[in-house]
Amino acid sequence: MEDSSPAGFDGFVVQHSAALFRTAYVLTGNQHAAEDLLQETLVRVCRHWRKVRRADAPEAYARRIVVNLANDRWRRLVRTAETGDLAEIERRPDPRDAYGAVDLRAELIQALHRLPMGMRTVVVLHFLHDMDDAQIAQMLGISASAVRSQLARGLEKLRATLPSSLPEGAQ
Amino acid sequence: MTEQNPMFENHTDGYNHHEVRAAVNQFANRTPAPSVDPSRIRRAARRRSAGRAGIAAAAVALIASGSALAWAGADRTERPAPAAATVASTRPSQPALDAKPSATTAGPQHGSTVTLPPLRNQLRADAEHQLDKLGLRHTVSDGSDRNVAAGRVISSYPRPGTAIRPGTTIHLVVSSRG
Fold it and tell me: What are the TM regions of this chain, as residue ranges (chain B) (predicted)?
């Protein structure tokens, strides 16, 4: 069955793979998992290319697949209580950074990967892709107010990882 | 944007927003995206379609519900180290992702190809000029990398050293902050 227009699909792969990989990588925190998610996503996009091509935003369609696959994977991990993921997030403090900002960010990322997947997804879509609550709501099939509360709760949890001595707002 | 939402703003402050955004983007930039060969993706998609068409309905349902597992058998095999994740030829299902493609493994199979030069740390205009000369199109998106000054290239996609056909679109990530 010839259901893909090779040129169009190839262009899609070239143009959007990197962004899709970033999404998968930040969601899973795991390079191999992100590579697998990217590949599986692209295969699905290819199989449904005619439909994807007609979509208003093909990249958003593909991103939703990434999000769903990351969710599936997370459910499997929870079910099997497998927690190898965090091990891959090594800390790489940059010696040139005198202010500990790198460590702080590593803490934040670890906290991000401890968030429940739904909350994590909302945080990632907002901060990595600058999607607003309406866009996130549409992609995830939940209400905008649910997005806002997930985002706020996610940020509360992330904030709890910031050192309490850290001044907020101004420097 | 959500920042304009008063309810949301009450829960947080600008510092958190900035720090979370920076952390997420920095983390995302840490690992370069793998190079993807679209033709392999198409072959994988065709294989799966063919598999489905040729099997009885019950089996089709099984594949549908277990597609992740079927994939797992082929591609979720433990890979010992990131550096070794690239041995595409030894993996059973011919995965479309090569973390480290080169002219020799990617192989110019379709007539003339050009090799993508390293563009990191070049001025955006210089990088664009090089791509133009090679007959490549490009798109640009913003990124941030503490080691790359504003206006210079952080990364390209596909990655340098990849053999590509003229006319291909290269995705450049250009640093947006100094």
Answer: 50-72
- Assess B141–A contact: CB distance below 8 Å, yes or no: yes
Cross-chain CB nearest to A47 (options B11, B39, B48): B48
> Quick check: A139 contacting B, CB < 8 Å?
no
Same domain, A36 and A15: yes
Report DSSP state, residue B123: B
| Degrees to nearest 5, angle at CA B108 with A37 and B113 | 105
Question: Is the domain of A1 the same as that of A65?
Answer: yes
Query: pTM to 2 decimals?
Result: 0.56
Of A63-72, B48-57, B102-111, B157-166, give the range with the top mean pLDDT. A63-72
Residue after which a domain boundary falls, among B76, B100, B124: B100
What range does the domain containing B63 cover? 35-100
User: Average pLDDT in the A81-105 region?
Assistant: 49
Contacts of residue B15, defined as CB under 8 A and 6 or more positions apart, other chains included, come to: A168, A169
Q: Are residues A65 and A40 in the same domain?
A: yes
Q: List beta partners, residue B163.
A: B115
A residues 116..135 contacting B (CB < 8 A): 123-124, 126-128, 130, 132-133
* ipTM of this complex: 0.76
- Is B121:B153 a contact under the CB 8 Å cutoff? yes
